[in-house]
Amino acid sequence: MQRRNFLTRISTLFAGVAGTAATTHVLAQAASKVAPAAAPIEIDVTPVKADKIVKLTLSDDEWKKRLSPAAYKVLRKEGTEPSGSSPLNAEKRKGTFVCAGCDLPVFTSEMKYESGTGWPSFFDTIPGAFNTSTDFKLIYPRTEYHCARCGGHHGHVFNDGPKPTGKRWCNNGVSLKFVPVKV
Predict the structure, then answer these.
(1) Which of 111, 128, 92, 110 is nearest to 170 (CA)?
(2) Which residue spans within the chain are E strands per DSSP?
(3) Over 90: is that where the pLDDT of 8 sits?
(4) Three-state secondary structure string covering 51-89
(5) Is the CB of residue 150 less than 8 Å from the CB of residue 129?
(6) What average pLDDT does range 33-54 have in this prediction?
(7) Partners of 157 in beta bridges
(8) Which tens digits make up the pLDDT trace of 86-124?
(9) Which residues are tagged catalytic?
(10) Is residue 138 within 8 Å of 11, Cβ to Cβ?
(11) Taking the complete model, does pTM exceed 0.85, yes or no?
């Protein structure tokens, strides 16, 4: 838990250096304006094979039209939303979390858990949904993950999660949409 507190404080410090309080306020406001829940539909969560994914490539202007300003900043510019700002932190229904950029299923509700970090967290992903890379934005190396279809930034994966994987896929809520299970 001390590591999480340290990471939260250090990321807040860097966020303060990188952006203004006004930017954080705008992101928090945008994140709080959530569209009504989508009608329940059936989502296929079969593992994705990398060679079967049709990549989604759009121009910067097309991404700006497709995404909210907060989602654009995170998905396309590798930003981070303020901790505790996502309504998906409290999402407890059965369903599927899909990429907000391209609707690729990335997590199921069974993979979600409360990490105490302020961001939606998952102990596993739908296989093939993400590609990973190493970033050094906070000086030390972190594993960053991006959507396998559209390349959108979702967050970072850490080795302090629960069993059975021991992983914490710490996701920005604006990078996700939730689709409840069809009843």
Answers:
(1) 111
(2) 95-99, 105-108, 112-113, 121-122, 130-138, 140-147, 153-158, 168-171, 176-180
(3) no
(4) HHCCCCCCCHHHHHHHCCHHHHHHHHHCCCCCCCCCHHH
(5) no
(6) 56
(7) 143, 169
(8) 999 999 999 999 999 999 999 999 999 999 999 999 999
(9) 170
(10) yes
(11) no
